Fold this sequence. Notes:
Blueprint: H1 4-10, H2 14-19, H3 21-40, H4 50-58, H5 64-71, H6 75-78, H7 87-102, H8 104-111, H9 114-150, H10 160-187, H11 192-203, H12 205-218, H13 223-245, E1 247-258, E2 264-274, H14 281-300, H15 310-318, H16 324-345, H17 348-357, H18 369-404, H19 412-452
Antiparallel strand pairs: 1-2
Amino acid sequence: MASAAENLASNISLANFSKATELKKRLWFTLGALVLFRFLSYVPMPGIDPRAMAALFDTQRGGVLDFFNTFSGGSLERMSIIALGVMPYITASIVVQLMASMYEPWKQLKKEGETGRKKLNQYTRYLTVLLTSVQGYFIAVGLESLGATQGISAVVDPGPLFRAAATISLVGGTLFLMWIGEQITSRGIGNGVSLIIMAGIVATLPRALGQLFEGGRTGTMDPMMIIFIVALAMGLILFICFVERAQRRVLVQYPKRQTARGMMQQERSHLPLKVNISGVIPPIFASSLLLMPLTLIQMSGAQDNPNASDWLITLSTWLQHGSPLYLLLYGAGIAFFCFFYAAVQFNSEETAENLKRHGGFIPGIRPGKATENYFDYLVSRITIVGAAYLVLICLIPEILFSQAGVPFYLGGTSLLIVVNVTMDTVAQVQSHLIAHQYGDLIKKAKLKTGRGR
């Protein structure tokens, strides 16, 4: 049965939306910020030849570059000033979150509330600058070395000056995107960083769909295969929506309390546990770690060098997209990071202690250590389902692309991000509309009360 909030949201009319001026301002601000992000993706980095860069990128497809290029909306392929996107910020945020759960001084900062959160955010920014500087420098060096090994010089004037300019440009672009994301979060709708990633992924969809239908028109792809791919994508999206909204509600009871009428009333509540506790972090980590060796081999030019070691060539063959070893390691990596990140995110000891402090208990479970063990057991079983779900969602597109010869790359991680961000944004829009409608009802009630007097 739908809740009262859902029934209210479903009855919201277009007239109420037209009156919600604050919501419209937030939507326009969000749209303008995303348009600015797309404009920046076409601003080239200083000292780069765009045509040579496009030809050079074509020789390096199949590694982690495709993965990051999808998230950046093609910025890495064009080597724009935001080629790294917000991925260094995401990596820094994950590292800080993990450290805040394991490193004792940062644990105390996390418990300090708003002050501690500001300090952790400051550490995240510092780590973002460090990661972007290191990645930017290695990208500049890699472009110079690739130009020498591949015979395609994408750098106009190699040297220390180009490396410094490239590193500064990439650091400035990533920090500017981070600032735009924070502005969207505070003045727009939804999570700004997540919306930027989703905008980059969605920007690659028209070209991917164009390649798909062009293959059907020219006869290089079977029309039934195209219908199957579209139907499979729709089915995966519906499945993701279903699982991401799924929860395991743990019943929590509190001691009987005396009400205003003198009656004893026992309060009940639910502790919701998502089936997919770890979110999209496991596929991102597993993909990055698995594709990094192949990318380093490609950037070193070992595949095209006849004097390269045999084990390097063998390793690059085994780790190719769609190979059995790649799929096996990818699935195992996703499952491992699911359990690891769930253990870090959900602190069963702290949750059990908070329940005990407020007098709450789970029926049939003693407070304290028994409740902690019950949470560990419950989270482990839920994580098994969540890990199987993520492995299934991520491996089906990989198998499809490798076996069916689909001419574009859109992995399960991209689908997860797009669907999750869309659901969160729609939920925030509905909450703004509900708040606006409640405000109108309160105003009308005050007017009626004033007339009655």
